[in-house]
Design goal:
Helix content is 40%, strand content 19%. By secondary structure, it is an alpha/beta fold. A five-stranded parallel sheet has the order 2-1-3-4-5, sandwiched between helices.
């Protein structure tokens, strides 16, 4: 997407993992963050779990809530034990008070409602990374 190149960039040199079953969202996130960051994408929780051994050095995980098989919260609970220093963002098309409360209680770093502004997502990631630096 051409218009991304004109936007100021805050995130550089990071290692992101995106688990999103919608190819348009997955590809757009890859275009937005790629080139200046290492981005690995998966279309399902099972694909991400199968590649776990190849995910060393991940700074940020972005999980869709509704995925085939395990949902994004279940995926977070698994990866958090193996990558405790990483930051975790859950994206969802259906927000509820219960979901917000549950994700906060579980320790997810951010919850964002789709559709979202990519610059706001980047601002959130930048803030999360800066908080641990």
């Amino acid at each position: 997407m051409r218009y991304f190149k004109t936007m100021p960039r805050q995130i550089n040199g990071q290692h992101l993992v995106i688990v999103e079953d919608d190819p348009l969202i997955r590809d757009t996130l890859t275009d937005f963050f790629g080139g200046r960051n290492t981005v690995k994408t998966f279309a399902s929780a099972e694909e991400a779990l199968a590649a776990e051994g190849q995910l060393q050095g991940v700074n940020v995980f972005i999980f869709d809530y509704k995925l085939p098989g395990k949902n994004g919260v279940e995926l977070f609970q698994h990866f958090r034990t193996h990558f405790p220093a990483a930051k975790y963002i859950l994206i969802t098309g259906e927000m509820s008070y219960e979901m917000a409360e549950r994700t906060s209680t579980l320790g997810l770093d951010a919850l964002m409602l789709k559709p979202f502004d990519f610059q706001i997502l980047e601002d959130n990631i930048s803030g999360l990374i800066s908080a641990t630096a």
